[in-house]
Every structure is written in C-alpha cells, then in structure tokens.
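A.,

Following up on our hallway conversation. Structure tokens first:
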C-alpha cells in the first residue's frame, strides 16, 4: 500500500531542478507550445485564420516589452526611479535610423560621413550607444537617490529631445518625420508586419530571457540588495555606485534595442513619440504588470495596450453620449478631450489600490498554489 503513495503537488528533487527556468516537463511542453504558436501566427495570418492587424499589435507589444523590461531592471530590481526612459528609447531609435540611412556631420570644420549600415549592425551599435548615454545620466546616482534621482532622470527627458530637435536638426529632421529604410536580410525585405515579425519576436524573447538570467547572477543579486537597502549592501562590500551605473547601462541598452526595432517597424520617426507622456506610460505599464517580476513587463504592456486600444475607446464612446446631459455646464469638447486620460488614470489608481504588486505577482501566486495542490491554502 505504501508503494502506491505519491506526494501531492510539485517538489524539486535536485539543485539543478530548483534553479531551472522550466522546473517540470509540463512547463517545458507548455512554453515550447506557446513559442511554436507565436511563431506560427504570421502563417495563420497569411491563411486568413487571424487578422493582419493582430500581427502588427503583437509586434508593437513585443517592442514595448523590451523597453519596459529595461525599466524593470532599473526600477523593479535596483530601486532607481527613472522618468526619462522614453528619451533613451529615442536615442536608440534615431541612432539606428541614422546609421541605416548614412549621414554626414560637421565636426571642427570637417565633414564626417558615416555610410549606411545593415540593420543587424545598426541594432547592437545603437543599443551600445544608448547604454553609454544612460551611463552619463546615471552618474548623479552616486550622490542622490529617490525623488532627487527622479529629477535627474527627468532632465534627460528634456535634454535629449532638445538635442535631437535643435543641434542635430540637420541629420534628424528636427520636428519633421525622419524616414527609415526598411531592413532587409540577404535580399529578403522585412518591410511588412509578417516579415519583421520574425525579427522582433525572437529578439524580444532573447532579451526577456537575458533579463531573467541577469537577475539570477551575482550582478542581479547585487541589484536586489541595493534596492532593499543600499546602506546595508555597501556595508557588505558591494560597490553600490558601480552596480547602479551597470543598472543604468543595462536599462538604457534595452531602451536602445526597443528604439531600434521601433524605427525599423514603423519606417518613420517623429520626436512626438518620445515625450514625457510616454515615459510615464512605460512606468505605468511596469506598475500594472508588476515591478521586480520577470513577466511584469509582458503583463503590463499587454494589458495597457489592449486597454488603450479596446476598452477605453469603447467606454469613451459610451460616455461621450451619456455625460453631456448629466454635466450641462461642461462643454462636450472638454468632456471628449478629458475622457481618455481620465479613464486611464482611473485604471491605474484601481490597480494601485486593488493589486499594488501587479499582475505578475498574482500570476506567481496562482502558479505556486497549483504546484502545491491540493494544499494551496
């Protein structure tokens, strides 16, 4: 009888299983199945099973996941507030665009010409350049933190777009749109949503996997210790300033990759897509998804994108009709202009009240409850 007794739930039986990303065969099969389904979506779209617009939406979600994952490394794991993340995305986007176009720039009465480069060189170079820019704006983290550090990163949000619009206007087109050539790979154009899907999605999965593994390393543990208590971390021998700079570099590097993909996906850049509103939106995505969780960026970006594209427009159309009779002292134009930000702000406040740790935290609780079934309470 004793031989037939089996333990309830899922338990690790080795150290390798304990540190594995997929701890059970079921996890492996589910993840492989989801990746296979994701990669098959362009084929399903070509067959008419799913609409082409869904492919474009997935592309944009995957790009934003990379950007928000970089913000998660800085804010969620290291505890450094940043209000200038959209500016770093702009650096990556314009760097990749200019390198793919080729440009000439006057330096000390001489004209330096940079030839056009293929996209697979532009993306890593733009990411590294953005990481170096992030290092510059991360220098104040040596002396300030908290609210004061937020003000220092806010300076990047104003300085970088100003540089793009004014001193570099001759190469960036300033406030005018900048055309970006479509990427190609061995003669195969990646101009359409289906084609560039196979560039964006594998790169997004790779960046998410790298971010998850960084946190499992010595550097990641140092990030978390600085977030929890930077004074205690310094007393333990951790070089707090060096690791803060590394966090800023990695965060900006992820922003650079996202900006590069954004440029190649849209084939056109405008500085209006990198304002302070977008920095706040990235931070809101991270808060809703769950700061400090590997899947927080994915949940936050997917939820906010679907919320903004579907639920908020539907509620806005309904309230445009219902509110004017109830508020005759407010003009319908003012109501229409205020509805979208009001609804989004309400959704963010509800998340802070009802689920302050984000969707990823609830997902982790559900997974743990399932694996120790039937004793989940």
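Then the amino acids I'd put at each of the 377 positions:
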């Amino acid at each position: 009888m004793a031989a037939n007794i089996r333990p309830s739930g899922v338990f690790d039986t080795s150290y390798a299983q304990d540190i594995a990303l997929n701890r059970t065969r079921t996890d492996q099969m589910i993840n492989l199945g989801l990746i296979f389904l994701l990669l098959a979506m362009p084929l399903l779209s070509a067959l008419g099973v799913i609409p082409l617009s869904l492919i474009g939406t997935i592309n944009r979600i995957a790009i934003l996941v990379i950007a928000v994952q970089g913000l998660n490394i800085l804010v969620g794991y290291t505890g450094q507030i940043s209000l200038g993340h959209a500016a770093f995305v702009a650096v990556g986007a314009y760097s990749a665009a200019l390198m793919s176009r080729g440009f000439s720039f006057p330096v000390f009465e001489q004209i330096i010409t940079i030839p056009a480069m293929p996209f697979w060189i532009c993306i890593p170079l733009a990411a590294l350049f953005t990481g170096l820019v992030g290092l510059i704006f991360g220098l104040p983290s040596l002396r300030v933190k908290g609210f004061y550090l937020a003000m220092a990163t806010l300076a990047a949000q104003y300085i970088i777009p100003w540089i793009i619009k004014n001193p570099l206007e001759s190469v960036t087109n300033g406030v005018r749109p900048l055309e970006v050539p479509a990427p190609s790979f061995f003669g195969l154009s990646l101009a359409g949503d289906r084609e560039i899907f196979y560039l964006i999605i594998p790169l997004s999965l790779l960046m998410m996997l790298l971010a998850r593994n960084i946190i499992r390393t010595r550097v990641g543990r140092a990030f978390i210790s600085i977030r929890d208590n930077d004074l205690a971390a310094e007393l333990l021998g951790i070089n707090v300033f060096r690791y803060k700079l590394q966090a800023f570099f990695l965060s900006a590097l992820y922003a650079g990759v996202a900006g590069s993909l954004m440029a190649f996906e849209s084939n056109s850049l405008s500085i209006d897509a990198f304002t302070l509103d977008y920095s706040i939106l990235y931070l809101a995505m991270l808060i809703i998804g769950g700061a400090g969780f590997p899947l927080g960026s994915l949940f936050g970006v997917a939820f906010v994108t679907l919320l903004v594209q579907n639920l908020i427009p539907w509620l806005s159309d309904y309230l445009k009709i219902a509110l004017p009779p109830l508020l005759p002292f407010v003009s319908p134009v003012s109501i229409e202009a205020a509805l979208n930000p009001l609804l989004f702000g309400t959704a963010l406040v509800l998340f802070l009240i009802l689920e302050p740790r984000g969707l990823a935290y609830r997902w982790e609780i559900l997974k743990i409850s399932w694996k120790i079934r039937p004793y989940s309470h």
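The beta strands are 103-107, 110-114, 178-179, 184-185, 188-189, 268-269. Curious whether your intuition agrees with the design.

B.
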